[in-house]
């Protein structure tokens, strides 16, 4: 059994709508990305997070711009949820000089400190030890800032997870460890690589609260993230949230899903959190179908604008190979 | 009066070993800049102030929020240092022994060294890694290696290996304020041998070699505790009438090509001596560069002395054979002098 949360915070209508806005922005952005790759307009390894939209969206409505996230190569949804502007995001995916990282990081390594996206790592597990450093800095600064470390279920089996969670707990760091458990570590099924049925149970070993959450239910994610963030801001230390979800597009773009059953995937896609939450907003009278359609249209225009902006940007000059190695440029 | 003005200015010095010099540098840096932090295993006073006492007194003076003992978790140590550095702090992270950097290589190589470049200059990681190593104490194959070539091969991290306590202090003061990650290797003996340190020893720039002994017949380039061995050999060579110029490299990456090339061009002969393995060691890079730049001006091929291709052995007899000793240096110098 995962721990049970006593007091469940509930997002108000405006916040629910904001969660949905972030989810649809992620979903539209992802769909357009895959389209552009299929059309051959961009060449980049792409790890779609389709199906996982709900998790960072319900968390990000609780974060401020100066709260930080450290995420991983399957992390563009985390950045979009944190409201990273799409123009520099797309320019980076396209390897252009106007990208967030001047085209030197790419889709697996975006950084955008203005929206708190501090590190995106291509190494499984490495978001967690670095998030601790931001947490330590918040304590030293005396601020209430928190840092969210995103990672997958596979990363809970790497040593960095153990070292980072232990240190965060001993130092009472304001870090929230969010495991987006999509059931597969690359191509390996959860139960074939993980010795415990719930990752949240591992929190016991680190003396911190651990919750297993329905990662496809915005209200469940919100309630648990709310408790974890409040705890961190109050100086009480870290929390481990395991958000159970599913990735619809496999490990990497082009994945043929041979390692999962068709029925399993179909069932997961039937439980797609997006249409479900859309219907809930309509049923609860929070928004009308027309309003939500209009929101989608607006977001599609934003994504289209970002793509066209990115395509028109220049590629970085070769001089960039000598820049940013150190603070001082390396002489030619 | 007129004769007095011609005399060299008197520099007031104090006898200090490397350990005390690093401690003084950390004290000074932490006093001057509240952003300087120290972390590592057993480094706070409650845990003894470091495995050999380098950080003694720091936590008592600056508190355990700035001077934090950590669990035995090298990845967590480096991750915390990286995040804090990116958030505007200047952490000095101790990885007790250089062999233990192996369990934190992802953090050091994939993250500390590369995040500035990969973020297009948005991230900076101004941290210092302190790490101790060196053979000679029978600690065998997992406590004594010199891995500076690995880090020198990684773009984005500077590698410093000081010899004298004065250099320790000066190079630490620079490294702590450097905007980029720096690994400083403290090699065994350099921590414990007292030498003169100017009382007001300030920062010494990274990337600058030091001509310790001027000479005309041959140049020896070395660094770290191997400098003690080199100086013993040079004493014997000087007595035999050989004029050796000794260059203490001090920074391995980026290394002072200009100083090494100038010296090698002047003497026409170069020998590189280091404790690290000879295969693919820093001597290979130096030799290749010098031969590219000075082809035709050298009187002999560049010589290289380093550890053999094996792990650091335990038995004293084997350990002595493993380490480059003064007679080997003397013999190699004589061999090179006999060419051309």
Automatic annotation (TrEMBL), chain A:
SUPFAM superfamilies xref list: Thiamin diphosphate-binding fold (THDP-binding)
Catalytic activity field: N(6)-[(R)-lipoyl]-L-lysyl-[protein] + pyruvate + H(+) = N(6)-[(R)-S(8)-acetyldihydrolipoyl]-L-lysyl-[protein] + CO2
Transmembrane domains' residue ranges: none
Family matches, as InterPro entries: DH_E1, PDH_E1_Alpha_Subunit, THDP-binding
Sorted UniProt keywords: Oxidoreductase, Pyruvate, Thiamine pyrophosphate
Lineage top rank: taxon: Bacteria
Cofactor(s) it depends on: thiamine diphosphate
Keyword tRNA-binding: no
Domain Dehydrogenase E1 component intervals: 21-316
Keyword Oxidoreductase recorded: yes
Function: The pyruvate dehydrogenase complex catalyzes the overall conversion of pyruvate to acetyl-CoA and CO(2). It contains multiple copies of three enzymatic components: pyruvate dehydrogenase (E1), dihydrolipoamide acetyltransferase (E2) and lipoamide dehydrogenase (E3).
Name used for this protein in its record: Pyruvate dehydrogenase E1 component alpha subunit
Native species: Novosphingobium panipatense
Highest classification ranks of the organism: Bacteria, Pseudomonadati, Pseudomonadota, Alphaproteobacteria, Sphingomonadales
